[in-house]
Q: What sequence folds into this?
């Protein structure tokens, strides 16, 4: 429906919301507060016509006309008067099916759903292209940081060779707390108290959430389909307070680094705790902040930094997407930027190389270091430095911290397996990559 | 003209270039190397049809078909077969007139011209809107850093309250060298040797270039017209090596900071050397890199960092703009985002407040500090700390470094004028704002 305002046509775009949780309520609130201003700026206005919720009686952070609420997804997805579906339920199912149904029926879709886009993004974008509708997902990675748009549009003339990102606020908060002296459990509890971590924090602390986001970023950056199950991910549960102390002593901080590179053999992608030099740009990303460092052949090094989560930053990204759809809708255009251009293999992570930090608890007696060094040497792993730290004398345990030169992951894990069988080695070891 | 490729329509967009200097040659080179890939990605291809140059015989960094070269601007501007003019001459005149002529005749325009956009951007965008054509200028600020697009589109739902930017690579290179111990002249010569500074560096070192860029950023961020002549700018010529030493001793670095805020009284905007805490995000922006820190009410704090100049980063931005125009051109849409929404006054800089760093060379005798403190007190300026440094005993000169609490600029300059008349004060003083 078109209204006229000041002689200019204002297009009205009818929205159906799926979900009115933290991000949904934040987006509805932002549209209520700033709808007029946005309409003035873009020449289109958004009218919320339906809101799918689980429990209509639940109190919410935003006032919603009760007549818009429904618990029936079909009442939203099958409503022919809706132009655009805003999917903010999260999780793979039923969100993936809802998005596909919406696109199939010719509705545009804006989503913040990283899991769906990471697992099904390429197929859903293909469906959107075929149905001649827009599917936008800026809010799926990095909250208010517009990294999706930058990769899809602004860096289009670049061959992107490398991504380095601190892309999970929950773990970065925990690691920042540990850097300041807390232990893991206390830091996690603090994150939960502040609402940064969920009661079951597995998705965040095991690196699953970051792997979804890295799959999306890698797919866009390298123009090839990188699936989350191809991304090796380790979480942060095994890190100990003393790893931060040892790292600091050598000039490093520890971050959960999402890293992807494209080289002659294909794409290397992983999410894992990593020692990063304190002078590195990502070392100063603290607390719940996120950052994405991008290397492109034209722009060289480029970084985006900001709040990667939260109702307001995420709503900012959702509304920017709504405006981008509105821009296209005004003349029935879609963003048909080709996503997958190359067929690049994803390299088996065992074949990749890194320097490593290795912390081992060992019996405090002569010859122990020689045994460990022997196993490393047999696996062609060269030692850059060794420090032996005293622990508790009374129990006869010492701690050895080894930094290696560049080594192949497969050989490193083989050596580690072998080292753990040595009778002088105790449990509780750490094995962390080191970023240049 | 439309070609067909793989069943899909590929639109051909005919380009006329104005200028084939560093950025022009870089853009032509990028289009030659990556044209096919870009055409595949966006469904449109760019054909360079005319290139305005000053001297067709001059050797260039890129091979251009000699039959495309012309020294006659009208041969480009009046060619009805051209869809889009790429203006890369730089400078206000005749570029501003060329852009206006191109828009007037219904041609789209992409430009990297900060001076033209800073001085005439609002009128030219208005003209583009009226003629229903696109005017894009991503490369005018921050080289490969897509700050224009981010402000125009991605942050559209935000009220932006503050901008802080290191936005001139030449001066940041010089300041970084001075931070490492060089004096101003040596650092400038080094910048000139490396091609970072021009033979006449005034535009950069006096803050003029940064003021143009800040005018563009402020206009977009605050949605009000901020003209470059409303932006107070000081350059870096008065800085001395010892200012960097004193600053470092107190935990600061010195940057040429482009700063703009919007408050109840209007917009405050300035470009001036500023003491910045070493922990500040902009403190770690070194050499020719640029960064823009944006505070918005939805996204909170957000930063873009990258190469702010150079042929390749700038060409990356120009080509991204070409692709954006192509996207719109495919269905005859324009980016009609309203630029000026508010009529906000620009605050007289004398009325703004800051903390200040003051370095004075004084006679090394009793009572000097009392005289200076008295003048400051009479002007209602409160001293936070004072350090007196010995200089050369033999000449009886000492150096006093004063940090003030928040003070009004007008009172500070009045006090400084008065202090300079004291017979115990020698020339060669510095007066620098201090960022929180």
A:
């Amino acid at each position: 429906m078109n209204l006229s305002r000041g002689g200019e046509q204002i297009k009205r775009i009818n929205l159906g919301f799926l979900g009115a949780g933290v991000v949904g309520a934040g987006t509805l609130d932002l549209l209520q507060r700033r709808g007029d201003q946005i309409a003035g700026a873009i020449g289109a206005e958004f009218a919320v016509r339906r809101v799918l919720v689980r429990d209509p009686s639940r109190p919410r952070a935003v006032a919603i006309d009760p007549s818009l609420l429904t618990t029936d997804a079909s009442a939203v997805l099958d409503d022919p008067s809706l132009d655009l579906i805003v999917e903010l339920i999260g999780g793979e199912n039923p969100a993936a099916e809802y998005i596909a149904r919406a696109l199939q029926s010719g509705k545009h879709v804006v989503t913040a759903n990283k899991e769906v886009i990471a697992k099904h993004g390429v197929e859903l974008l293909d469906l959107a292209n075929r149905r001649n509708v827009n599917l936008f997902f800026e809010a799926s990675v990095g909250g208010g940081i517009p990294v999706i748009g930058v990769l899809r549009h602004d860096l289009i003339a670049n061959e992107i060779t490398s991504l380095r990102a601190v892309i999970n606020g929950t773990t970065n908060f925990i690691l920042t707390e540990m850097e300041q002296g807390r232990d893991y459990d206390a830091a996690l509890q603090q994150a939960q108290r502040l609402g940064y971590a969920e009661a079951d924090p597995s998705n965040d602390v095991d690196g699953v959430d970051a792997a979804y986001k890295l799959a999306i970023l890698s797919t866009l950056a390298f123009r090839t389909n990188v699936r989350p199950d191809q991304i090796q991910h380790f979480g942060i549960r095994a890190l100990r307070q003393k790893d931060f102390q040892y790292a600091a002593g050598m000039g490093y901080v520890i971050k959960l680094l999402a890293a992807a590179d494209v080289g002659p053999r294909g794409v290397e992608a992983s999410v894992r705790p990593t020692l990063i030099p304190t002078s590195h740009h990502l070392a100063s990303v603290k607390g719940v902040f996120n950052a994405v460092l991008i290397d492109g052949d034209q722009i060289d090094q480029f970084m985006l930094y900001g709040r990667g989560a939260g109702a307001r930053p995420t709503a900012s990204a959702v509304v920017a997407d709504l405006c981008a759809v509105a821009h296209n809708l005004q003349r029935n255009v879609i963003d048909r930027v080709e996503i997958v251009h190359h067929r690049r293999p994803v390299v088996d992570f065992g074949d990749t190389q890194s320097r490593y930090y290795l912390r081992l608890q060992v019996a405090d007696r002569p010859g122990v270091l020689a045994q460990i060094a022997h196993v490393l040497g047999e696996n062609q792993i060269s030692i850059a430095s060794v420090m032996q730290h005293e622990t508790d004398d009374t129990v006869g345990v010492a701690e050895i911290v080894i930094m290696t030169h560049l080594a192949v992951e497969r050989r490193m894990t083989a050596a580690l397996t072998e080292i753990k069988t040595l009778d002088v080695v105790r449990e509780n070891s750490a094995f962390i990559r080191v970023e240049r």
In short: Chain A touches chain B through 57 residues (CB under 8 Å).
